């Protein structure tokens, strides 16, 4: 015990390395350094035009007529509540989208779109912000520009599982979606989800969307759902005006390599240039290691005198050097003078050999003591890591998985438990260069196991301790699925903070990439599309009917369908999948999925059935037929959904207008009509009227078989015209196809592909 205490005391006298990155706030002479509670540092400045700031965009005005005083950006009049080395925090009062409806006539009485645009200023939206939507069954659609180059579309749905009582963000009556760093502009619009099929079920007249940082000082946003009747009451009770908007700032409009030799270069002596990490060209400055001060103000950063805190041995001498320091020993002493080295020890003359022995003994004893303490510290660290792994393993359901493995040898063969060390080595410690993709459920890394196998490792974002048992049951269930068109789950790792799932690696990208790739180098033929549709339908039918417990995927979309080197389809991403008992008919849950693919009935009831997967697959079929995206932001609200546009064209007997030109040229008319008819059945708004996945798979296989049959007959009997395939392709419906002389396809549904339903 005494040795242990002495070790701790010995370690305590070893100084920690002093951070050299600290900078002091500084302003120009005769300029204010504070406005109320806000400390201002150059390039920002208060008042005096641009004499106190770098330029007008960094100029602040201080209103001293209020208590405490408040600061505002001179160019825009926006209130500033905080500045930092890379961001400013502002109160952007005019940042809310509002949509209100007349509950009697169900028309919009108020429609305000949220518009934020920073394209002409040295600011961009920080990823610390979020888009928050408050309302019942409302869609917040977001469009924006990232890094001044890339357009993006996002959004979220706010639904009320409990239409009376208290709403909460996130949760009942509220949804959130993140904002990417470097967002230059965005536009948020609110729309009622019931506008297409059940408008009269609108619960409250108003909904709201705003942008800001949900900080800990405000806590979670709660509100009475009845406040959705009155926008003023809602804003007052939720303190939305106190929520800051975070903006990243930068200097200039060029990166470091372009501006360093320019006369406009702002970084002063003993500082270095840092490219803006927002993706928009510009830069910031920072002091070199061992220096402190304001890197934008002449004469620049000044050297830190480390010797003031004596970082050397107690008997040593400290000499300050530019950006660093040196340690030495005084006369009569030997050593390097450093506390973390040999230090300084006394070397007397030959007449004092006893003192020399004592000094050497003390030095050796000190080294042994330090060595002992080092290994003791290392042992404790390893023990701590081991206990932490055991804690994570238990929290992530490891004991439950071991119990199931011990009672079933088949599970032992199919479910492998990987160690954290194995997967860290396989992914180079989860290096960013190994990232294959990121989504709402987590990040997928490419890795190579010790046996040379290439795998995909999914690292979850969150872990819900209340669903550990369900997660383990799903891991066991999915690991036993053996289907050529389903990505194989090889095993998992449970001794990390969040579970890691290990899948087989699929090399040829996603179906979405191939559908929407306009490159002429790889023509995505109709035969290949039909083959993929057959394979995906078979895989989903296998999940629904051939496993011990039916499995609902719940997120069928073209980005979750992978293609291997032979372009065989592989259904992936079971992050939201659920298995159900055979006596259950549906699964009640919070609404999850992807816009454009979600079953409309799911929005209303929050009950996910096997027919919800059928609807999502129907959207994928329409993507294969049309080569169009499931959501189009450049169309009117009623036609943004690809499924809606497709059904309208089917109803108006104008299917040809929406089909892909390559499909029209290469595909057989009977096949296209049959697949379109099947897609229409899958997209029926009433789930009971949709076919099962088994029926869908059987019908698609029949269509493909008829294709092979027609090819064989045409090859064998070139002079005989046969129509055997039609009885397989078409059921009770009579379809007629008439083509125009002009091969150009109109953008509206006015083309001559006619579908007549008896």
Summarize the model shown.
It is found in: Membrane. One of its GO terms (cellular component) is membrane. The protein has 758 residues and is an alpha+beta fold.
Total separate domains: 4
Report the helical percentage.
Answer: 25-40%
Weakly predicted, low-confidence segments: 1-24, 713-736, 738-758
The number of helical segments is 17
**What is the CATH third-level topology name of the largest domain?**
Transferase(Phosphotransferase), domain 1
Word description of this protein:
The chain has 758 residues and is an alpha+beta fold. The protein folds into 4 domains: 89-249, no CATH class; 306-347, Laminin (Ribbon), CATH 2.10.25; 396-505, Phosphorylase Kinase, domain 1; 507-756, Transferase(Phosphotransferase), domain 1 (Orthogonal Bundle). Helices cover 28% and strands 24% of the residues. It is built from 17 helices and 42 strands. The strands form 14 sheets. Strands 3-4-5-6-7-20-11 form a 7-stranded mixed sheet, with no helix packed on it. A hairpin with a 5-residue loop joins β5 (70-73) and β6 (79-83). α5 packs across α8 (468-479). The longest helix has 43 residues, at 353-395. The chain is globular and about 100 Å long.
């Amino acid at each position: 015990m005494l040795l242990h205490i002495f070790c701790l005391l010995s370690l305590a006298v070893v100084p920690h390395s002093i951070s050299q990155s600290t900078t002091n706030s500084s302003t120009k002479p005769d300029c204010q350094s504070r406005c109320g509670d806000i400390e201002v540092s150059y390039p920002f400045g208060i008042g005096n035009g641009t004499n106190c700031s770098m330029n007008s965009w960094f100029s602040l005005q201080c209103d001293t007529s209020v208590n405490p005083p408040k600061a505002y950006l001179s160019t825009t009049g926006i209130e500033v509540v905080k500045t930092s080395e890379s961001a400013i925090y502002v109160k952007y009062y005019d940042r809310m989208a509002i949509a209100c409806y007349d509950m009697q006539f169900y028309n919009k009485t108020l429609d305000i779109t949220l518009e934020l645009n920073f394209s002409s200023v040295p600011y961009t939206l920080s990823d610390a912000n979020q888009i928050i939507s408050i309302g019942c069954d409302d869609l917040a659609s977001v469009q924006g520009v990232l890094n001044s180059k890339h357009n993006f579309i996002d959004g979220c749905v706010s639904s009320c599982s409990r239409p009376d009582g208290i709403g909460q963000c996130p949760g009942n009556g509220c949804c959130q979606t993140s904002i990417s760093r470097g967002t230059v502009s965005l536009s948020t619009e609110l729309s009622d989800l019931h506008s297409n099929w059940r408008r009269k079920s609108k619960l409250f007249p108003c909904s709201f969307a705003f942008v800001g940082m949900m900080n800990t000082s405000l806590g979670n946003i709660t509100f009475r759902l009845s406040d959705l009747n009155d926008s003023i009451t809602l804003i007052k009770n939720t303190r939305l005006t106190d929520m800051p908007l975070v903006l990243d700032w930068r200097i200039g409009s060029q990166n470091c390599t372009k501006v360093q030799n320019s006369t406009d270069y702002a970084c002063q002596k003993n500082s270095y240039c840092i490219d803006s990490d927002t993706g928009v060209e510009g830069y910031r400055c920072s002091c070199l290691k061992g220096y402190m001060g304001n890197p934008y103000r002449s004469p620049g950063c000044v050297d830190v005198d480390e010797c003031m805190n004596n970082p050397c041995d107690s008997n040593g001498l400290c000499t300050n050097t530019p950006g660093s320091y040196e340690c030495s020993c005084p006369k009569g002493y030997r050593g390097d003078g450093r506390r973390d080295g040999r230090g300084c020890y006394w070397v007397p003359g030959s007449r004092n050999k006893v003192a020399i022995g004592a000094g050497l003994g003390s030095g050796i004893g000190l080294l042994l003591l330090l060595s002992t303490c080092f290994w003791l510290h290392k042992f404790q660290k390893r023990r701590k890591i081991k206990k932490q792994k055991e804690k994570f393993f238990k929290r992530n359901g490891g004991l439950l998985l071991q119990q199931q493995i011990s009672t079933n040898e088949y599970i032992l063969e199919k479910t492998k438990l990987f160690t954290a060390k194995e997967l860290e080595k396989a992914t180079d410690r989860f290096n960013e260069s190994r990232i294959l993709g990121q989504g709402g459920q987590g990040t997928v890394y490419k890795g190579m196991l010790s046996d040379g196998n290439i795998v995909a490792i999914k690292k979850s974002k969150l872990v819900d301790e209340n669903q550990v048992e369900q997660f383990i049951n799903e891991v066991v269930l999915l690991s036993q699925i053996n289907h050529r068109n389903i990505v194989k789950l090889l095993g998992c790792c449970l001794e990390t903070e969040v579970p890691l799932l290990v899948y087989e690696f699929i090399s040829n990208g996603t179906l979405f990439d191939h559908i929407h790739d306009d490159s002429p180098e790889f023509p995505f033929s109709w035969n290949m599309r039909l083959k993929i549709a057959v394979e995906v339908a078979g895989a989903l039918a296998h999940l629904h009917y051939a496993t011990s417990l039916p499995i609902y995927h719940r997120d069928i979309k073209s980005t979750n369908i992978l293609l291997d080197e032979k372009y065989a389809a592989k259904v992936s991403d079971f992050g939201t999948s659920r298995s159900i008992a055979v006596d259950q008919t549906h699964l009640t849950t919070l609404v999850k999925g992807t816009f454009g693919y979600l079953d409309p009935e799911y929005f209303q009831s929050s009950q996910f059935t096997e027919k919800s997967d059928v609807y999502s697959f129907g959207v994928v079929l329409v993507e294969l037929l049309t080569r169009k995206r499931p959501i189009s932001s450049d169309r009117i609200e009623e036609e943004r959904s690809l499924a809606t546009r497709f059904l309208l064209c089917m109803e108006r007997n104008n299917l040809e207008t929406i089909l892909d030109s390559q499909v029209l040229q290469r595909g057989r008319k009977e096949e296209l009509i049959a697949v379109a008819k099947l897609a229409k059945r899958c997209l029926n708004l009433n789930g009971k009227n949709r076919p099962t996945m088994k029926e869908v798979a059987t019908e698609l296989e029949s269509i493909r078989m008829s294709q092979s049959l027609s090819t064989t007959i045409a090859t064998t009997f070139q002079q005989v015209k046969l129509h055997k395939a039609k009885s397989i392709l078409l059921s009770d419906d009579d379809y007629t196809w008439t083509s125009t002389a002009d091969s150009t396809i109109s953008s509206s549904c006015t083309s001559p592909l006619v579908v007549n339903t008896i």
